[in-house]
Design brief:
The complex is a heterodimer of chains A (114) and B (115). Chain A has no helices and eleven strands. Chain A has 114 residues and is mostly beta strands. In chain A, a hairpin with a 6-residue loop joins strand 4 and strand 5. The N and C termini of chain A lie far apart (33 Å). Classes of the chains: A mainly beta (114), B mainly beta (115).
Chain lengths: 114, 115
Amino acid sequence: GAGVSQSPRYKVAKRGQDVALRCDPISGHVSLFWYQQALGQGPEFLTYFQNEAQLDKSGLPSDRFFAERPEGSVSTLKIQRTQQEDSAVYLCASSLQEGPGGYTFGSGTRLTVV
Amino acid sequence: AQSVTQLDSQVPVFEEAPVELRCNYSSSVSVYLFWYVQYPNQGLQLLLKYLSGSTLVKGINGFEAEFNKSQTSFHLRKPSVHISDTAEYFCAVSGKRAAGNKLTFGGGTRVLVKP
């Protein structure tokens, strides 16, 4: 596609429910990032993939958060046993190659945990 | 590690007036610097970036920013704003050796352009 596609656009989860957020990067993009943006704040880094390899997961806030990109294209961010503090917009970004600033961001998935 | 401080959380400005959004950063390594804009319910769009060379960087939509290494600042300016510039603006840095050049963002500055 022409841009980075994220689905669902909105997700409401009951506390304790597991959720899966999907990111379709631009075709051929090697690098893929996930960021978490809480209400009224700037995005915060969660994890980074180069192709299928997860090279940095230092930003994942707990072991309830898990990300994968098994074939080096589509990525899924999974959150187990969701809690209210997980409510945020989850942004995905991709880039053709490793390098500064050439990322295209998706519109995000807004997760609300009730 | 890096950190970014955007000194103004909100900036109201009249249409056709100039605007400056302030950004200061802290880093133990050399950095790349960026400004992004976020319109409501949309992702982030790159306005401009400083990688090296001239410290005055020009971006899209008439925005420019100046890198000041001694003051560790990267302030964003536009000489005349339009209603359509109403949005949230984020300053970000990336360490030059960070894996994949992951970004550290500031808290954002909300710009409200009034007619």
